[in-house]
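Incident log, structure service

09:12 report received: a user says their structure output differs between two submissions of the same chain.
09:20 pulled the input from the user's history:
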Amino acid sequence: MEVGINGVGLLVNGKAKVPEYQGRVAEYLVFLMISIKKIIERKSHSEYPATKDKPLIIHDDLMIIYLDYSGNPSKAIYFDNENHVINYSITYADNSIILTSDKIPHVPVFRLTYTLLDNETIDTKFEMSNDGEKFMTYIEGKSKKKN
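09:34 re-ran on a clean worker, output below:
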């Protein structure tokens, strides 16, 4: 997969079901852009509608992806409104960009994978693992490019 860094600008929206929230559908928006030539910002906003048993849940996050000495995206840091901070290393496989969190004792390992399905669609999968080997999907959804 080629990663276009200079002038990146992509606005996508989509829907995903989250098992933890009893299958409620979240609508989300992700915006990718270059703030300066050395970083990419990814912002996301999700809203899980209230049900008779659960209140409305709003999730906001920010990820900063930064370039290594050769100009390739190799690291990222993630922050959200639930006080999570996750440091990621970035690898590439076929049509996928894979962000894997650092291994820290007694903390789950997180993996975020973006897979380009076609010129308009990205599959996003967020997984967790207790050992860094066996991952369980926490949330997965597809996003379409918005013109």
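09:41 both user submissions now match this output. Likely a transient worker issue. Closing.
09:42 reviewer note: The longest strand covers residues 25-36. The two ends are 22 Å apart (CA to CA).
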